[in-house]
C-alpha cells in the first residue's frame, strides 16, 4: 500500500478524551509515531490524553479494549512490526489488525490504526513522521480516529 490518495483531514477534538496505546518494539520508529500522534492531538486541541505502553503489537487489542470499556472517546493504536525470517510476522500483524478491528466494531469506540507492518526498517522509518520521513502515520491515526468520532455523532 502506498500513501498516495490519503485525504487531508482537519479535525477538532476539543473536549475529547483520547487514549494512546503504544507497543515497545523498534524504538526509533515508535518514538517518531508517538511524537507525530502527540503533535496531531495538540493540533486538534485534545487536552485529555492518556498514554499507555504494552510490550508488543500483539498486546495492543487487549489494551485498546480496556480503554474503550473504561470510557475513552477514541483509541490510537501504535505499533511497528517488521518482517523477519519466520511466519511470526503474519501472526502478529493479523492478531493486531483483527483484534483492533474487533474492539472498534464491538465497542463503537473508534480506533486509529497506527500499526506499521513493514518488510524492513527503512520502510518503517519512511512512515514514522521523523525528519526525512515521507509520511507521518502516528498523526494520520489520530486524525482518522477523531474524524470518525465526529462522523459517528451524526448517525
Ligand atoms: C515476538 C515479536 C516479534 C518477533 N516481532 C515484533 C515486532 O516486529 N513488532 C512488535 O510490535 N512485536 C513483535 N513481537 C512481540 C509480539 O508482539 C508479542 O509482544 C510477543 O509475542 C509476546 O506476546
TrEMBL record:
The active site is at residue 88. Keywords: Riboflavin biosynthesis, Transferase. InterPro entries: LS, LS/RS, LS/RS_sf. One of its GO terms (molecular function) is 6,7-dimethyl-8-ribityllumazine synthase activity. It is an enzyme of class 2 (transferase). It catalyses: (2S)-2-hydroxy-3-oxobutyl phosphate + 5-amino-6-(D-ribitylamino)uracil = 6,7-dimethyl-8-(1-D-ribityl)lumazine + phosphate + 2 H2O + H(+). (2S)-2-hydroxy-3-oxobutyl phosphate binds at residues 85-86, 127. It holds the Pfam family DMRL_synthase. 5-amino-6-(D-ribitylamino)uracil binds at residues 25, 57-59, 80-82, 113. The keyword Kinase does not apply. Its EC number is 2.5.1.78. Pathway: Cofactor biosynthesis; riboflavin biosynthesis; riboflavin from 2-hydroxy-3-oxobutyl phosphate and 5-amino-6-(D-ribitylamino)uracil: step 1/2. It comes from the Bacteria. CDD domains: Lumazine_synthase-I. Catalyzes the formation of 6,7-dimethyl-8-ribityllumazine by condensation of 5-amino-6-(D-ribitylamino)uracil with 3,4-dihydroxy-2-butanone 4-phosphate. This is the penultimate step in the biosynthesis of riboflavin. Belongs to the DMRL synthase family. This is 6,7-dimethyl-8-ribityllumazine synthase. It comes from Oerskovia merdavium. The lineage of its organism: Bacteria, Bacillati, Actinomycetota, Actinomycetes, Micrococcales. The gene is ribH.
Amino acid at each position: 500500500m502506498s500513501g498516495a490518495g490519503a485525504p487531508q483531514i482537519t479535525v477538532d477534538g476539543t473536549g475529547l478524551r483520547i487514549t494512546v496505546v503504544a507497543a515497545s518494539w523498534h524504538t526509533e520508529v515508535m518514538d517518531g509515531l508517538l511524537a507525530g500522534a502527540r503533535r496531531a492531538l495538540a493540533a486538534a486541541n485534545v487536552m485529555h490524553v492518556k498514554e499507555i505502553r504494552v510490550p508488543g503489537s500483539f498486546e495492543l487489542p487487549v489494551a485498546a479494549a480496556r480503554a474503550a470499556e473504561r470510557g475513552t472517546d477514541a483509541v490510537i493504536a501504535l505499533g511497528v512490526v517488521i518482517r523477519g525470517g519466520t511466519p511470526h510476522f503474519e501472526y502478529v500483524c493479523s492478531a493486531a489488525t483483527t483484534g483492533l478491528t474487533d474492539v472498534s466494531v464491538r465497542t463503537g469506540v473508534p480506533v486509529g490504526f497506527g500499526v506499521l507492518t513493514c518488510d524492513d526498517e527503512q520502510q518503517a522509518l519512511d512512515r514514522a513522521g521523523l525528519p526525512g520521513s515521507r509520511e507521518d502515520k502516528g498523526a494520520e491515526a489520530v486524525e482518522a480516529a477523531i474524524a470518525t468520532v465526529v462522523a459517528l455523532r451524526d448517525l
